[in-house]
Specification:
The protein has 415 residues and is α/β, with parallel strands linked by helices. The chain has one domain: Alpha-Beta Barrel (TIM Barrel). Helix content is 44%, strand content 13%. The chain contains 12 helices and 11 strands. Helix 5 packs across helix 6. The two termini are 14 Å apart.
Length: 415
């Protein structure tokens, strides 16, 4: 089993305290250097764009009740260079980078090539840059960059259309990364059908809009959508960089997106801790069949799984007392999270999230890992969830590696 760390760098109030930006970033660098010393594999960094606070003024705020800023990493590449410079062994990943903003798939591909060129100038540097990419969870971050419906048809189709735009963007992104000369005529064509929609009513609204806007028959079976990215032949530079320094991870549960990405380059998959076992196993089975041949055989560690960690290890307390303290911490943090995202507290969601988090003493968390995960899984451990106490976050990171990890190893050896 392998262990990574996820860093949210989320500037939101916790118990009335919200650190300023320099403090948030100093805490991050303190923690990532500790993660390096402790032997964690990859530091996954959340990327965000634009102010969460300011978007609350808009007509359609995405997270109207969130206080502060969802994340302070707006330029993953600059942060990654600094992390590599101040650490020795840990690798760095984006979790996740949106292809819909800040330059889109062409700009992102060009930045990655430039980063890996500079990163690889040192012949002794073999640590990889892991690029997790997706549409992006928070739509307000993409709207100013044109990630919005362009007409009435796209407005009607938008919930389903977003995934199709991502497929087109992924084609552009991955083919440029592998060094292709590419024009938009070579990329994914979006044609909407009933299969793209959850209900007959959703599809009928798109058919009606296409009839009124495009002049298609009212009962048309297909609605073609004009491409988002229109360009003649292009090729990104630099090109002569070591692609073994790059690892790609798609943040999509859509099997078609996973298959499509692996037509071009080896592309791994993100999966959240709350994903059910059936979907996890189906994804592994599918990826074993479709993983791009140049990446070798599919491994379970290629699908990192997010797990929030609430670890308490007070030497003066019993296991039961540490478990109770950890549960109180988890419930408080998760309650604040759901309130921030939705404005109301749903006890069932808090309970479900707590049941999927790693909560308790080292002994209890080790047992949870052994019960829930496959021995070859990779866990992306989230220690800074609604927690600005740098000492406490650091303690959890340290005690996980020094106490939980050996218990898991001995438990696996005893199976």
């Amino acid at each position: 089993m392998k262990y990574d760390v996820f860093f949210s760098i989320s500037q939101t109030p916790v118990d009335g305290y919200m650190p300023d930006e320099p403090t948030m970033l100093r805490n991050f660098f303190s923690q990532v250097q500790l993660a390096d010393r402790l032997g964690y594999g990859t530091a996954w960094i959340a990327q965000a764009h634009l102010s969460t606070e300011i978007q609350k003024r808009n007509k359609r705020p995405v997270v109207p009740h969130f206080q502060g800023e969802i994340g302070l990493c707006t330029d993953f590449f600059q942060l990654a260079h600094k992390v590599f410079a101040c650490t020795k062994n840990i690798e760095v990943g984006s979790a996740v980078m949106s292809l819909m903003c800040n330059g889109g798939p062409i700009g992102m591909a060009e930045r990655i090539g430039n980063f890996c060129t500079l990163h690889g100038l040192n012949p002794d540097e073999r640590r990889r840059l892991h690029i997790g990419f997706a549409t992006g969870r928070f739509e307000f971050m993409g709207r100013p960059y044109g990630f919005v419906p362009r007409d009435a048809v796209e407005e009607a189709a938008w919930p389903a259309l977003k995934g199709q735009i991502f497929m087109e963007a992924s084609d552009v992104f991955l083919r440029l990364l592998r060094g292709d000369v590419l024009s938009s005529k070579d990329t994914y064509d979006t044609v909407l059908t009933r299969a793209n929609f959850r209900s007959d009513g959703d599809w009928e609204r798109v058919q009606q809009a296409a009839h009124e806007t495009y002049g298609l028959p009212a009962d048309t079976l297909e609605v073609p959508i004009c491409k988002r990215y229109v360009f003649e032949d292009i090729k990104t530079i630099p090109q002569d960089w070591d692609r073994s320094l790059l690892s790609l991870v798609v943040g999509s549960h859509d099997p078609k997106a996973q298959l499509r990405c692996n037509q071009w380059m080896p592309t791994k998959v993100f999966n959240l801790s709350i994903t059910n076992d059936e979907m996890i196993n189906k994804t592994h089975d599918r990826m074993a069949e479709c993983f791009h041949e140049s990446g070798g055989s599919w491994k379970r560690e290629y699908m990192p799984r997010t797990a929030m960690v609430f670890l308490h290890d007070d030497a003066d307390k019993t296991v039961e007392e540490n478990d109770a303290a950890a549960h109180a911490h988890a419930t408080k943090a998760l309650s604040a999270y759901w309130k921030a995202l939705q404005g109301t507290l749903d006890p069932k969601k808090v309970e479900a999230a707590a049941n999927n988090a790693l909560v308790g003493s080292p002994e209890t968390i080790a047992k949870q890992i052994l019960d829930r995960y496959h021995p070859e899984d990779r866990l992306m451990l989230w220690f800074d969830f609604f927690n600005h106490d740098n000492a406490h976050v650091s303690m959890m990171m340290k005690h996980f590696q020094e106490k939980v990890s050996p218990l898991v190893t001995s438990g696996l050896e005893g199976q």
